[in-house]
Design brief:
Blueprint lengths: L19 E9 L6 E10 L8 E12 L13 E3 L2 E3 L4 E2 L9 E7 L5 E7 L3 E12 L2 E10 L5 E8 L13 H11 L2 H8 L6 H11 L2 E2 L14 E3 L2 E3 L3 E3 L12 H11 L3 E4 L7 H7 L3 E6 L5 H13 L5 E4 L9 H6 L25 H9 L7 H8 L5 E6 L2 H9 L4 E4 L13 H6 L2 H6 L5 E4 L5 H9 L4 E4 L1 H33 L12 E2 L1 H8 L1
Parallel strand pairs: 15-22, 16-17, 17-18, 18-19, 19-20, 20-21, 21-22
Antiparallel strand pairs: 1-2, 1-4, 2-3, 3-11, 5-11, 6-11, 7-10, 8-9, 9-10, 12-23, 13-14
Cofactor: FMN
GO cellular component, one term: peroxisome
Family: Belongs to the FMN-dependent alpha-hydroxy acid dehydrogenase family.
Length: about 525
Amino acid sequence: MGCGDEGDGEDECDCKGGDEIEVLATSACGEMERHWFQSSVVVQTEGIRDDGIGGGEERMEMGEAPPLEDISLVDIKTDVKGLVTSQRTTLQSPPLSPFRTKLVCFFDESTGRKIHLCFPGFFRSEETVFLTWATGIPVLRHESRHCGSGESNFLFQAFCPGKKDMTAELVNVMEFQELAKKVLPKMYYDYFSGGAEDEHTLRENVEAFRRITFQPRILIDVSKVNLSSTILGYNISAPIIIAPTGMLKLAHPEGEVATARAAALCNTIMVMSSSSTCTIEEVASSCDAIRFFQLYVYRRRDVSYQLVQRAERYGFKAIVLTADTPRLGRRERDIKNKMVPPNLKILEGLLSVELDPEEEGSKLENFAAKTLDPSLNWKDVEWLKSITNLPILIKGVLTAEDARKAVEVGVAGIIVSNHGARQLDYVPASISVLEEVTVVEAVKGEVPVLLDGGIRRGTDVFKALALGAQAVLIGRPMVYGLAAKGEYGVTRVIEMLRDELELTMALTGCGSLKDITRSHVRTERDGLRSFL
């Protein structure tokens, strides 16, 4: 709990009136200016209000820059005696001297947010505040870009040294979602959590799982439960894969890189989106995770070609072709928020689109309309196979006919998906497609069937496996973990689902994934058949 927070007294603060919370950092500015400064933030804890809010000031000392080889803009030394969060910077005086970039580290318990400040005539600042993690401690990195300099005041919530990590008390994915909603700007939260039109399928994706019940077996030795799985020959710790999700720097400034590192820690697969805010090279060099690459086919086929070639060159193991997006679905939250897509770093140097700032509605929808190829068809799978040696999975299958066609054209796997209910509303929930059995029967075991959409519990993973999926992909749960706690948050979400799956397997009498069968679950269709 923070200083002055209400509570039952079990987690009381050790701070005394007059204590100081001080953060020290040495930073470097751009090469052209060759200046440096040392800044400290000093807070009198006696000035903290009952709601945990207090004021502080930043002090800067300017001087000549040391040799550039002695400057590190990444690993900054810090001496921290407390935690701060939710900072706001305002100009207090005219600029002292120009500099381009400062990097300051803070310890924090919130997530990243971007602040844009503009003071006409002499000062402009773009600030990014975000978390990294070191030895389990949340570290807030603060980056500013200025064309002038001045003293700064900070408005923040002060926490006492030794305060418990608030995510330690989160016990399920839904609580991570609640935390993500608090820390993300509304536009970004709506982008990640919203669906198409009435959002009927969005709700149904989750609710359909709840209508499936268990039929556990008893008196079976489950002293050892094995969750390990193999997808396309790659061994993973559990049948839980990270789904392709675009624009992850809107959730956390380390975006896809943090997500890939979490996948590596959890020994699972990350499917990187071709709408990423990090480059293929950045993700590939960040860790040794098993990586698949999701592909949108653009009107400019050379862009798609180059993305596939780069993915193959940098060690990605498969291509996931998204086949359900000839046009972007009507996402009314994005329209109301006038959603603006961020810089898609993955497309830098490949694709540039001019968007009219005066144009109404979602800029994301306008971007998609100008870039995605609506002529994409089954013949293009052959084209894709001709430009890569990687196995290809098709994402967006909802019918047995398309499942059979996918096998006929030689794909390596299919993903049952309604695009997170973000494309066409009133299509079936993903799990309902598996309930009908026809998709699984159509592939006849020739290729793996994966599923995404609506996974919120380990019990959901079990139900999908019982109905014929080899693994599930998680999108929104991963985003909520990322927004709440960066790499650590994604890791925790995967661990939660994995732990819940292991418990479900034990309680249903399944010691390994091969023990999970259709007889372990009962669907509404089963009830109707028995009634008839």
